[in-house]
Amino acid sequence: MSMLARLDFQPGDSAWDDVAPLEREVYPPAVTAALPWRNITWAHADWRVVTRNDARRVVSHVGIFMRDATVDDSPVRIGGIGGVMTHPAFRRKGLATAALNHAREFLAKQERVAFALLFCEPKTAPFYARLDWRRFAGAVFAEQPAGTVRFTVIDPMVLDLTCSAPTRGTIDLCGLPW
Q1: What does the pLDDT look like over 108-165, one tens digit per residue?
Q2: 111 within some domain
Q3: Among 30, 84, 128, 170, which residue has the fewest nearby CB atoms (within 10 Å)?
Q4: Is residue 3's pLDDT more than 50?
Q5: pTM greater than the 0.85 cutoff
Q6: What is the domain range of residue 88?
Q7: Residue 123 and residue 22: Cα distance in Å, rounded?
């Protein structure tokens, strides 16, 4: 097994070609076909935290999103986390935790970003809870090709940054989910 070379922070679009092979390995067609979120149209990451092995191949990834949204109809800047994935051969080595911590530090330094939001399947919620993420029990609305919809496919979780993140109420992402 290869040693890890480094954790990088890269602009979202320019890093996608490097991340796409990891996504195909983590979510091959047979896996994707069974996912509850397989038909969702997702936003593209603004930034990416990637971990590479010594062959410079991406083995872990966290997407970072910046969004002007609303909470209970009041404007708020939200930092989003999405596309968290690690190659199966590199799991349980702390890569996702390190990348998420790096993303959290980045978001906390951004002007006006009140809190962070991610969406996860119930089976991964305990992992995020260990990293201080809390369940958001309110309603989340997001754009999809057919218009604005209540986003219920996977569960939202929030993380305090410059403000205490809401755990109830209504969040409108004012755009695509991540």
Answers
A1: 999 899 999 999 999 999 999 999 999 999 999 999 999 999 999 999 999 999 999 9
A2: yes
A3: 30
A4: yes
A5: yes
A6: 4-172
A7: 21
Six-digit token string for 6 = 């480094």
Residue 177 lies in a domain: no
Residue whose structure tokens are 């330094």: 109
Q: How many other β-carbons are positioned within 10 Å of the β-carbon of residue 77?
A: 18
CATH classification at residue 94: 3.40.630.30
Report DSSP letters for the chain, one per residue: -PPEEEEEEEEHHHHHHHHHHHHHHHS-HHHHTT-TTTT---PPPSEEEEEEETT--EEEEEEEEEEEEEETTEEEEEEEEEEEEE-GGGTTSSHHHHHHHHHHHHHHHSTTEEEEEEEE-GGGHHHHHTTT-EE--SEEEEEETTEEEE--SSEEEEEESSSPPPSSSEEE-SS---
